[in-house]
User: What shape does this take?
Amino acid sequence: MTSLNKLTTRYAFVLVLCLSLAILAGYRVLQEAQREKVVLLANTAAMQITDVIKQNRNVLYKISRRADVVRSVRLGEFAALDEKADSLGSLLPHAQRVRFLPDSVTPDPTSTPPLTQACVAFIHRTQDQQRPPRSEFHLLGKRYEHFDLAEPITNAQGQIRGYVHASISSAPIRGILRRLEFKTHYLELRQTAGRGRGSSQQVVMRLGVARHAMGSTPRSRSSVDTAWAGVTTVLGAIGALSSHESVTIPIADSTWTLVFWPRVDAAPLFTGKRLMLLLVIIVAALALLAASLNLSWKVVAFVNHDIKSLARIFRDIREDSIRANYPMELSEFAKIFKYLRDSGKEMVIEKSIFKDMGLVDHLSQLNNRRHFEKKLRELFDTIKTSGYSSVLIIDLDHFKSVNDRFGHDAGDALIVKFANALKKHVRQTDFLARLGGDEFCVIYAYTDLQRAAQLAERLRQELPRDLPLTGETVHRLRWTGGLSVMCDDDEKSDDVLWRADQALIQAKKAGRDTTRVMGPASVPLQKKKSQSS
Assistant: This one.
């Protein structure tokens, strides 16, 4: 056994140790707090850039699926679509221009903004990849700097007949990065060109202190892949332990990547006010240890008191006398104490009600026929959820001769002695009842016929062979039984009782002092109905 005092003492020492470790770890947490904050800002900026792409992409997709647009492209009426381009372009607030282009699009350097060879190559990637190309910047550093989005316009067979192309100003992207207001950190927005080993990265935008001012050459550290929705993981971003490690954040649905170098300069731990704070924490830890020991002693006393009250409740329930209130110390036990007290009251009341309702046979002190029928109905209603129950009817052999030879007092004594013997040799879950006269019944709740037959045979073996009656009279105990089980075809609860009674009749015809079993299939349904009627 374990003492509560020892447990509390160990807990207090472990708590102090953990507190000491927490102080050391807390310093590292404080050091990383600033880094985490700025990394979260960078992740937020990445998600905002993704939202800008997604919003413009959704509008462009809806335009490419408009019935009038699809029809005009199918008929080759691109001039008519150009007239609608301005009105449709108003759906994209930052669009420099919206174009409707045939599948054989060529560069147009005279348009505003110019449709360069890079833009045409960007559009043609749709045919190669069978999906809209990821957004990318064009005309960097020039007057019409923008990023492109394109959606294919297809016919009913899914063949590409043209494109809707939008040149979106880079102003929203630059605005998102400017709002970060980095002073001691450095961030780059890079664009990847090409694929595989031949790919290269170009710095599109910069923000913050120049990278050479950060100290040694940064080491790159990538976060996990981003989903289409643009939600990037923060755990990978804040996992870099070095103050000058970079954090790479891919931008979904684009060729862009945010590369971020947060700078964190931590102050020494044991200096100035931090040393005073450490002393305060040590004093608080010692006070906590003393308070824990004192709490342990009080808890032991309170628990002992309430356990005694709990034992008093059980004793009172057994004696059919529940008090109005039981003293207790711990409010945490209030709910269970109230439940036990209320349940005890209900048990006492129910016992009184059962006696008043006459559910107990006055002679044998077993359940009477009324209670038996109620129990049988309850078990019949739960066949599908809880399983089948079996019924054993018992008839005392030659009971009438006992009354005739030795008088009714001897007959009553036989009923009482047999009932007491039954109580000793059945399971606690079995239901005993006296149906009347010398007829008894055992309900094997939720027990199949095979198991019930075993229990009935065990009952026959364990019941006494002789029962003393009045005076020196001893009765040679003999009884006949009929056993059956409920089934799905039963229409009412006493169908099983009918089968058990038929089994009892067969046992009597066979010479008594035996038990016969009748399953649901032993008697045809039509014969059963005719006999019951």
